[in-house]
TrEMBL record:
<keyword id="KW-1133">Transmembrane helix</keyword>
<dbReference type="Pfam" id="PF01697">
    <property type="entry name" value="Glyco_transf_92"/>
</dbReference>
<comment type="similarity">
    <text>Belongs to the glycosyltransferase 92 family.</text>
</comment>
<dbReference type="GO" id="GO:0005737">
    <property type="term" value="C:cytoplasm"/>
</dbReference>
<keyword id="KW-0472">Membrane</keyword>
<protein>
    <recommendedName>
        <fullName>Glycosyltransferase family 92 protein</fullName>
        <ecNumber>2.4.1.-</ecNumber>
    </recommendedName>
</protein>
<feature type="transmembrane region" description="Helical">
    <location>
        <begin position="23"/>
        <end position="44"/>
    </location>
</feature>
<keyword id="KW-0812">Transmembrane</keyword>
<dbReference type="InterPro" id="IPR008166">
    <property type="entry name" value="Glyco_transf_92"/>
</dbReference>
<dbReference type="GO" id="GO:0016757">
    <property type="term" value="F:glycosyltransferase activity"/>
</dbReference>
<keyword id="KW-0328">Glycosyltransferase</keyword>
<keyword id="KW-0808">Transferase</keyword>
<dbReference type="GO" id="GO:0016020">
    <property type="term" value="C:membrane"/>
</dbReference>
Length: 593
């Protein structure tokens, strides 16, 4: 019998054996905790008694993070935030940092980072509405912003807009170990309080956006993963859910659009600050939308603006990604034809778009961050809602599409009584006796026209060779005629009963779609696109999609004779109009050169 077996023999021996085993377990546990503490020490390395490590940020920057005029119940004071963080630091000296909201002890109302949405290539961090101004703080002073995961893992951070930060994923070797743990932002040496968990929210199924509606006290939710069907039939068992138990009726549905009734006003305070989502046959969708009283998202006192009282006759909506190079030409041209207001939904551009838009301020252009991938239809729906109180008609086109109302244009400014696009719309509305809801315009695709590099004079005067048959259409839509679901098919909208759609005769209007650019510009589409169906041409899927280019594979390799492809008919009509119209010139150059 061994010494261990001998010591454990008999009744007393068995009790002594039990205590020895417990003692050994405690030793192993202490060793393990010591190793874990050493592993996580990087989070607090260099933190002294008066350090700001774990704090919000310095006071003068933090003050900028607080939105003016917010209700007190939506946000505790900065002093309270700092008190909570001070308690955090004290508790961190006594306990091991476990990378979970409960371990950190953060009140969700004081959390800066409320959600993290994981895409294939990045993570989108969403900040609580009361916190804003971080973008300005980063621009005014030299600061460093990093995304901070568990185990001290840091990645690059890109500010999308106040309230939105794009992060790179951790390296593959570290992803599994940090999944399910808190992800936040590190501002210089300070860590922002967060309750967002990395890997908890994905992009396959999510309520990701909301838009207020001016009538019937409804809102429009945007939902990923609800339906791939082109039909607008309302699914059985679909409801809207506010908080944990307040359910309301779905009044309209189409693809990713769900129109919801707001809760009764007497109970809205009960769901203030809580999630807004949908329930499909008792299955609750994850959501990053929160109900907030007194904000423009949930204003129940809006007034419907009659069509005749809207300030703009024609507006334009577009989803853009890295289109700064083409913005001036596109905006100046359409403005000259009668476009009075431009809504640009920015799908994570990282070019010079903001500086270019600043130079175009006089053209009434606004930029709206739209970080959601493969959601062009939803962006058009959202823009239609936004424009409905300001615009009578809205054109939905891309930056490489130019409407040419050739039957209504004049090269001499003195001959122009009314903008050409206004004349086009009014003429077709007159024919339909005031019931025109949508004007569809044929879309002709142009090729590189022999060019390898696009000259500074722009697209209209250089791309002059096209395909003979039009592909698809794009539409100018009457805002008040759009179906209650705001259902967009990208190329057209569904209309309310009583309105009609018309097809513009080609001698009256066409769209010049400069789809196949000179190779130096075209190859950038392999990086990423703001498309609905195929955003990444480098992926080996959806190879037969209309979003792809015939003859191209998944690699950005220039095909033989690319410069002369997609050229069946020489068409100089738009170039001739631009070159012979005096108001496109300044000091002998085109306005956008």
């Amino acid at each position: 019998m061994t010494r261990w077996e001998h010591d454990c023999a008999g009744c007393c021996g068995r009790w002594r054996c039990f205590f020895q085993k417990v003692y050994m377990h405690w030793v192993l546990l202490v060793v393990a905790l010591g190793l874990l503490l050493f592993w996580d020490a990087s989070f607090y390395q260099g933190c002294s008694e008066d350090s700001r490590c774990g704090g919000l940020i310095s006071r003068h920057v933090a003050n900028d993070l607080l939105r003016d005029g917010e209700h007190e119940h939506n946000l505790a004071s900065l002093q309270n935030v700092q008190e909570v963080l001070s308690q955090q630091r004290e508790s961190s000296k006594k306990a091991i940092y476990k990378d979970s909201p409960s371990a950190i002890g953060i009140n969700p109302l004081l959390s800066v980072i409320q959600a993290a949405v994981a895409f294939n290539e990045s993570v989108l961090l969403l900040m609580n509405p009361p916190f804003t101004g971080l973008r300005n703080a980063l621009q005014e002073e030299i600061h460093q912003l990093r995304c901070l995961f568990a185990k001290g893992v840091q990645t690059d951070a890109v500010m999308v807009e106040d309230g939105m930060v794009q992060c790179k994923h951790p390296q593959n070797a570290m992803r599994k170990s940090v999944t399910g743990s808190v992800v936040t932002l590190k501002f210089d040496s300070s860590i922002l309080p967060a309750t967002a968990l990395y890997g908890k929210i994905g992009w396959k199924k999510l309520v990701y956006g909301v838009s207020p509606l001016e009538d019937d006290r409804d809102i429009l939710l945007f939902v990923k993963g609800l339906s791939h069907s082109k039909r607008s039939l309302l699914p059985d068992g679909l409801e809207c859910l506010y908080g944990d138990n307040v359910r309301t009726q779905v009044t309209a549905f189409c693809q990713e659009n769900v129109r919801c009734k707001l809760p009764a006003r007497r109970i809205q305070h009960e769901v203030n600050g809580k999630s807004v989502t949908i329930v499909l046959r008792d299955k609750i969708f994850p959501s990053v939308v929160r109900f907030s009283l007194g904000t423009t998202h949930f204003d129940t006192h809006t007034v419907v603006v009659e069509e005749t009282q809207r300030p703009f006759f024609l507006c334009v909506c577009s989803l853009v990604w890295n289109g700064a190079k083409f913005l001036k030409e596109w905006i100046m041209y359409h403005s000259s034809l009668g476009a009075q207001r431009f809504f640009l939904y920015d799908n994570n551009s990282d070019d010079d778009i903001e500086n270019v838009l600043e130079s175009l301020r006089s053209y009434n252009v606004s930029r709206h961050p739209w970080p959601w991938l493969k959601t062009q239809e939803a962006s058009f729906s959202h823009c239609a809602v936004r424009a409905s109180s300001q615009c009578k008609w809205v054109a939905f086109i891309d930056l490489d599409e130019f409407i040419f109302p050739k039957g209504f244009v004049h090269t001499k400014v003195s001959e122009v009584i009314e903008p050409p696009l206004h004349c086009l719309i009014k003429e077709y509305d007159r024919v339909d006796k005031g019931k025109l809801g949508q004007l569809k315009i044929s879309n002709f695709n142009f090729g590189p026209s022999g060019l390898r590099i696009l000259p500074k004079s722009g697209q209209m005067v250089n791309y002059i060779c096209r395909m003979s048959v039009p592909k698809r259409v794009k539409s100018i839509v009457r805002a008040s005629a759009i179906h209650p679901s705001y259902c967009s098919r990208v190329h057209y909208f569904e209309l309310k009963a009583g309105y009609v759609a018309a097809q513009a005769v080609r001698r009256d209007a066409v769209i010049h779609h400069f789809k196949y650019h000179a190779w130096e510009d075209f190859k950038l589409k392999f990086v990423r696109r703001a498309a609905t169906f195929v955003t990444d041409w480098g992926q080996n899927k959806d190879l037969d999609s209309f979003d792809r280019t015939p003859g191209l594979g998944t690699q950005a390799v220039e095909p033989l004779d690319w410069a002369h492809q997609f050229c069946e008919i020489e068409d100089t009509s738009l170039r001739d109009y631009v070159m012979n119209t005096s108001n496109f010139y300044l000091a002998g150059k085109l306005l956008w050169e």
